[in-house]
Description:
- The structure is a single chain.
- This protein has helices spanning about 1-35, 45-70, 75-85, 90-100, 105-120, 120-145, 170-200, 210-245, 255-270.
- By secondary structure, it is mainly α.
- The chain folds into two domains: about 45-165 and about 250-270, no CATH class; about 170-245.
Amino acid sequence: MNRYALLIFAFLxxxxxxCKDKNAVALKEKLQSEYARPDKVTNLSSGSKAQYMxxxxxxxxxxxxxxxxxxNTGFTRQLERFENEELGVLSSxxxxxxxxxxxxxxxxxxxxVMSNKYFxxxxxxxxQHALYLEYVKDIKEIRQQFLSVKGLPSYTQIDLPxxxxxxxxxxxxxxxxxxxxxxTEIFGWFLGFVLVQIILLFIDKIAGLxxxxxxxxxxxxxxxxxxxxxxxxxxxxxxxxxxxxxxxxRYDYETLLKSLNNNTAKFYENx
Length: 271
């Protein structure tokens, strides 16, 4: 009898404990549901929505403007980089001696490497993606105020035309620079000799001040001639590269802007 009484008591205790646990779990879930953080702001006024939408649309418009500029000025920026790094004084001397001492095969290989370094569409594509990431960052900073950043604009890759910019004219450019350097040096000696002979027609000998004056005059003339001819040589090379770039990127930026603005409107309409 005592055995059955103990079993009944244990069963009742287990049942009571189970009910208490269920009640506790139910109460906990109820409290959590009441105080859970909302996914989005629900009390945003229509005026505030309009302000935030306008902010995003301004960012959208600036992004499209920057994207258009980035894509369509890509070659110009590549050309500027090429000029700065390869047409400077030290670089010109390096290229002159490379052309002078390298074999034709080695020179051609070097030109292919140089062309790929300065003129390729991959650089512009990477800049496109970096610009998009910066744009999305600006959008996130606004939308994070509403505890939600879902539905961000997707990345639109603008395909760039495939073109190959060769540096065949760089061989002539380096050769011409070499001729200019040696030519102006020889011309300087000749000019100095002529000036000396002219001055000797009027005075008995050249020494002291006259000698220094001739050196200065010859130096100035040689520098002016060298700079002018080198600049003309650089211009010819740049023009030959520009002639190879004859493709303009055409993309419907208005449609892209409309898509971004639609994304903005959809986000705020769902708040």
